[in-house]
Design goal:
The chain has helices at 34-42, 49-53, 75-78, 93-104, 146-151; strands at 2-3, 10-11, 25-31, 47-48, 55-59, 69-71, 109-112, 124-130, 132-133, 140-143, 156-157. It has one domain (2-158). It is built from five helices and eleven strands; from the N terminus they run βββαβαββααββββαβ. By secondary structure, it is of the alpha+beta class. The strands form four sheets. A four-stranded mixed sheet has the order 3-8-7-6. A three-stranded antiparallel sheet has the order 1-5-10. It has a two-stranded antiparallel ribbon with strand order 2-9.
Length: 169
């Protein structure tokens, strides 16, 4: 899910994302379903009806279907010192160092739990690639609806009525 005007495949490298790699590489953040994507994008809201109209869902498939992901929720990950804190800790310095280590070990990305998805299952995928927009298949675009957002447990608020506002000169 992303802003309707944004590229589907954006690989962030500005350190604003949990697993951002340093340039010239970057990280593209995906969710495995719309529930997880909405909760992550809204940070549990509330959001406005305008926010809903300005976003859409993108259903994409891995380009070759064979990405080698570091599975941070597997039992074996614990023997390397990985905990679910990796997906919740702020600031992002430690997760970014893990991402760089996973990349150096030959992984194409990370399969992880999402901070705002209480289902405690790996619903996040962080893919590594060249920083910036990638020319990959856009996937199926679907309009996001108020019902979609509310099903994910996020409140959608209409714009306030002008009679409810206090104008300060």
């Amino acid at each position: 899910m992303c802003g309707a005007e944004r590229a589907t495949w954006w690989f962030s490298s500005d350190a604003s994302g949990r697993f951002d790699l340093d340039p010239p590489e970057g990280t593209c953040y995906l969710a495995t379903d719309s529930y997880a994507a909405i909760r992550e994008a809204t940070r549990l809201g509330p959001v406005s009806t305008e926010w809903v109209r300005a976003h859409e869902r993108r259903d994409v498939e891995p380009v070759d279907g064979r990405a080698r992901l570091a599975a941070t929720t597997r039992l074996a990950a614990g023997s390397f010192g990985v905990t679910n804190e990796l997906a919740t800790i702020v600031p992002y310095d430690l997760p970014r160092r893990w991402a760089a280590a996973f990349r150096a070990a030959g992984f194409d990305g990370i399969r992880h739990v999402l901070r705002h998805d209480q289902r405690a299952r790996p619903s996040g995928v962080a893919l590594f690639g060249p920083a910036g927009a990638a020319d990959l298949p856009d996937g199926r675009r679907r309009a996001l609806t108020v019902a979609d957002v509310e099903r994910a447990g996020v409140t959608v608020l209409p714009p306030p009525l002008s009679s409810a506002l206090t104008v300060v000169p």
